[in-house]
Amino acid sequence: MKKNIGTTDRVIRVVLGLAVIALGIIYENWWGAIGIVLLLSAAASRCLAYLPFGISTCKVTPEEKK
Prior knowledge:
Helices cover 53% and strands 0% of the residues. It is mainly alpha-helical and 66 residues long.
């Protein structure tokens, strides 16, 4: 599978993932586990939700356009 998450998208996912996990711990709520999904997708540079729509936030180099 090709990577479909760019650098900016990864940083946003990491920050949001950590914030969601922290809020889940603070409010003692299991919804904080959703932050784990954000962290895992950022670590893998792949988002399964992007696949059906053909979305990619990765920069395309001129060599890849050929």
